[in-house]
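Handout, section B. The chain below has 261 residues.
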Amino acid sequence: MTSQHVHTASARSAHQKNGNVVVSVRNLKKAFGDRPVLNDVNLVLYESENLVILGRSGTGKSVLIKCMVGLIRPDSGYINILGKEVFKLSPKELNELRLEIGFSFQGSALYDSMTVRENLEFPLKRNLGIHDSKKLHELVMTALDDVGLQHAVNMMPAELSGGMKKRIGIARTLILNPKIMLYDEPTAGLDPITSTEINDLILSVREKYHTSSIIITHDISSAKHTSDRIIGLVDGRCKIEGTFEELRNAKDADLEPFFNY
């Protein structure tokens, strides 16, 4: 099965203004035992683009972005991020690259024993060696302001709603000023109003931080709201790509159920 490209000039216009490719994935394959999960995945992400990877649960979406940051090693294939081939990097080089990639985990991945302030200070201390209390406070409050949660600075994760946890997780990622954002199911488990707030936040992050983003989701509303371009991942393959309207009009049998909402 080859990838079906339904987009032409209209879909490209939004993300090829700059033309720079910041992520390139070629012929990526990954199986767990005898179960293939990624089956010859090919994609590119352009500078300042929001690219949505749309697919049902279990289609390999999360495995794909975990391969991108070196958390999972593929069986074969090639990933180049910001001009660096991921699986040829030394551990030190990979850690340096990860500082330029923000990974927003599906579960927010906050440390339950730390306050919001301490959660945000942690990457600054560990990765950037910042220990000056005034500087830490300034960076933490700026990041929280960007997600609308300055008032939560001294709260514990257990006191936060699901949407607040998502926002704090994004703030902790943004505090290192990444060039690329990877969002893993950013609206999973959230009510429609909170989901819309998270989608708006994804757009505002791009505007303020000039990020390029890959958004993994099975939420068609999130895909519509945040995407410049969508790739439909079916059976571990990038089957079809285009704008939201182009994919809806394509009436692809595997993706059409998403659009009948």
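Note. Residues 96 and 127 are 9 Å apart (CA to CA). Compare this with the example in section A.
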